[in-house]
Amino acid sequence: MIRDLRRYARQTNTRLIIGALILLFIVGDGLIYFIYGPGAALMGLLCLAGGLLPVLLAWLAVTVLGWVARRADRD
Q1: Per-residue pLDDT averaged across 49-59, rounded?
Q2: Helices (H), the chain
Q3: Model confidence, pTM
């Protein structure tokens, strides 16, 4: 049996990121909802989404640059 350790590492990193986001949004915003109410929970969601937006934009830029570099390397 051949082990692809790069695939395993990528899969593990993906699962860790998804788990952290679930904890942040569900548990974190759930606690805000139970302690402060629905208005504060909505504001918490907006703040979390606003904080996540630059991270997603940076990830998208790196992904697009990687795609462009792979296409340019083929030619």
Answers
A1: 94
A2: 5-22, 29-36, 38-74
A3: 0.71
